[in-house]
Amino acid sequence: MKKIQGNDSFQRINYLYQISKEIADKNPVLSAYYGNLFINVAKKNVAKIHPDIKRQICKKCRCILIHKVTANMSIKKKNKSKMVEYLCNTCGSKKNFPAKKDKDYRTWLEKPESVVEVVS
């Protein structure tokens, strides 16, 4: 079995992310604090955070964006393309993502050809 470098930091990041998501509906400010903690742990250890997790975090206040709990989601049309817009209830910042049925907007890490080896 291979030893994964920084495994303890990944576990800490995962734990802080879960706490942040769990407490978001009760106390969004505390959720933002835990979100800020796990971003700082990842930066300190030069760890890559999965794009799905990055999309759930507000860039300004670092609170977890959950539809109808800590953020409002709406669909906007811009230049014949649809955009999904998240508006953070804590700080008021906006985050936009493209949305179209026939296009594949997944990041390269989410595509199957990016996986070289699965470590269990």
From TrEMBL:
Keywords: Metal-binding, tRNA processing, Zinc. One of its GO terms (biological process) is tRNA processing. GO terms for cellular component: nucleolar ribonuclease P complex. One of its GO terms (molecular function) is metal ion binding. Gene3D superfamilies: 6.20.50.20. Belongs to the eukaryotic/archaeal RNase P protein component 4 family. This is Ribonuclease P protein subunit rpr2. It comes from Trichoplusia ni. The lineage of its organism: Eukaryota, Metazoa, Ecdysozoa, Arthropoda, Hexapoda. The gene is LOC113504873.
